[in-house]
Design brief:
Belongs to the alpha-IPM synthase/homocitrate synthase family. The protein is α/β, with parallel strands linked by helices. It folds into 3 domains: 258 residues, TIM Barrel; 81 residues, no CATH class; 56 residues, Double Stranded RNA Binding Domain, CATH 3.30.160. The chain contains 17 helices and 16 strands. The strands form 4 sheets. An 8-stranded parallel beta barrel has the order 1-2-3-4-5-6-7-8, surrounded by 8 helices. It has a 3-stranded antiparallel β-sheet with strand order 11-12-13, with helices on one face. A hairpin with a 4-residue loop joins strand 15 and strand 16. The two termini are 42 Å apart.
Length: 526
């Protein structure tokens, strides 16, 4: 099995996914990150399809890449026009790309139904386009669109498209499962037949509509393909593309590929970076790079993990740049709790067995009441401090009040808080866009003169979860608040049948943690 070439199409095929939109600057940043990671080919976009991609290719020419070649993408020339007169093809030439990917129909059904031309005319489009680009000194990758569907509908014609591309000068024939409906056995069968007829290297471009894009890509590799295409996080149209963040670790750790240029230990970082730039929420459960990929909750599992991680982990998380996490919940045993306390910065030798037992029961009581500490380490740490360290903050809440009023067609909210700070009573009033915002503003107004560091803290996420939908508007709710300062982020939780009360609890924990706890008891970033 040859070392595969890795082809990333996040910037082109990935942007066809729902809710995925990248600016030119976004695409340039991601291209640089992909190069640093070690990707062989980066498909930057289709210069002839939109001004954004044209601008990308103009700007990318001034950048230097250590590992990657930038590839432009296009269809063949249009029917009824010469390649040298087709604006899309000419924009490929002027893009500055040394390599272009040309896609064409290899399924006779698509030729007749989508293009409305004869099968021979479709072959002529492939031949003329590739021949013209080769005369311009450009290397051509040929994407056989819908190849596997075409192969099982009209095998002779599907392979004929590859033969025409090969004879016209294409350097690789990429077999596309465009509809994403194939299975590994079908992929294997088709590639075996293609290899008997086609001499140029083969590639695979698999979509994930059956959830098999990674499996199909790895099967193709075993059958001898030399290029694997995919995207970071599997981004792409419909159900997405083959996920390179899964494929690459599998190649390295399951298939024994050397991947000499790839920095596999940066896979998690790459995934998080792309999703951050694209303003997408990362999938916690994605293999290898998800936040939950090496997360352990059940007490039996954690007990074994602490003795030897191989008991419940197929690789070390550090190999892909991820981290191991131990959760504390109603399923937890003593092993979970001890590991979590160490993670939070506590010296577990300070705790007696009776204290461990008491704290475990306390956590289970809280979670029975609707609390969840799996994603709220800051509230968990405050709970431990209050139970065993005689901890109290430098301010106490005496009361708060919310006023809601109407003016014309508009509404307003005002919050009043009364605090005791270092034995001094302080009142503060503030208006906000809603009750939580008004409370946040009033609390800050009361505290900032005493604690200036509060000015660097900001609420960056606010989530509400209804815990008992059968109770309707009287249901208990859980509120999670994520807060950040210049150095770190932390998450707190509050629960109540009153959404304002639940929010207030989480908000108080957030402020209390940020002002006092991290300084008194350092903790790893949440």
């Amino acid at each position: 099995m040859k070392e595969p070439k890795l082809f990333d199409t996040t910037l082109r095929d990935g942007t066809q996914g729902e809710n995925v939109s990248l600016t030119v600057e976004d695409k340039l940043k991601i291209a640089k990150k992909l190069d640093e990671y070690g990707i062989d080919y980066i498909e930057g976009g289709w210069p002839g399809s939109n001004p954004k991609d044209e601008e990308f290719f103009k700007k990318v020419q001034s950048m230097s890449f250590k590992n990657s070649e930038i590839v432009a993408f296009s269809s063949t020339k249009r029917y009824g026009i010469k390649a040298e007169d087709d604006p899309n093809i000419l924009k490929l030439v002027s893009s500055g790309a040394k390599i272009v990917t040309i896609f064409a129909k290899s399924w006779d059904f698509h030729v007749s139904q989508a293009l409305g031309i004869s099968l021979d005319d479709n072959l002529k489009l492939i031949e003329d386009t590739i021949t013209f680009l080769k005369r311009k000194g450009i290397e051509v990758f040929f994407d056989a669109e819908h190849f596997f569907d075409g192969f099982y509908h009209n095998q002779q014609y599907a392979i004929k498209t590859l033969e025409v591309a090969q004879n016209s000068g294409a350097s690789i024939a990429v077999l596309c499962d465009t509809n994403g409906g194939q299975t590994p056995s079908k992929i294997k069968e088709a590639i075996e037949e293609v290899k008997a007829r086609i001499k140029i290297p083969l590639g695979i471009h698999a979509h994930n509509d059956s959830g098999l894009a990674v499996a199909n890509s790895l099967t193709a590799l075993q059958e001898g393909v030399e290029q694997i295409q995919g995207t970071v996080g599997g981004l792409g149209e419909r159900c997405g593309n083959a996920d390179l963040c899964i494929i690459i670790p599998n190649l390295k750790f399951k298939y024994g590929s050397r991947l000499p240029k790839i920095n596999v230990e940066k896979t998690t970082s790459l995934y998080n970076y792309v999703f951050e730039v694209a303003n997408l929420t990362p999938d916690n459960r994605i293999p290898y790079v998800g936040r939950s990929a090496f997360t352990h909750k059940g007490g039996v599992h954690v007990s074994a993990i602490l003795k030897n991680p191989l008991t419940y982990e197929h690789i070390s998380p550090e190999w892909v740049g991820n981290t191991r996490r131990i959760l504390v919940s109603e399923l937890s045993g003593k092993s979970n709790l001890k590991s979590k306390l160490e993670e939070l910065g506590f010296d577990i030798t300070q705790f007696s067995e009776e204290q461990f037992k008491k704290l475990t029961l306390k956590i289970k009581e809280y979670e029975h009441d609707g609390y969840q500490f799996e994603g709220a380490d800051a509230s968990l740490k405050l709970l431990v401090l209050r139970e065993f360290f005689d901890y109290t903050p430098n301010f106490q809440v005496e009361n708060f009040n919310i006023l809601h009023y109407n003016f014309g067609e508009g509404t307003g909210t005002e919050a009043i808080v009364k605090l005791k700070i270092n034995d001094e009573t302080v009142h503060a009033v503030a208006e906000g866009d809603g009750p939580v915002n008004a409370l946040d503003m009033a609390l800050r107004k009361a505290l900032e003169d005493f604690f200036p560091s509060l000015k660097s803290m900001k609420l960056i996420d606010y989530k509400v979860r209804v815990l008992d939908s059968a109770s309707g508007t009287a249901a208990k709710v859980r509120v999670l608040i994520e807060t950040s300062d210049t150095d770190k982020t932390w998450t707190t939780v509050g629960v109540s049948t009153n959404i304002i009360q639940a929010s207030w609890k989480a908000l108080l924990d957030s402020v209390e943690y940020g002002l006092f706890v991290d300084n008194l008891f350092p903790v790893k970033e949440n």
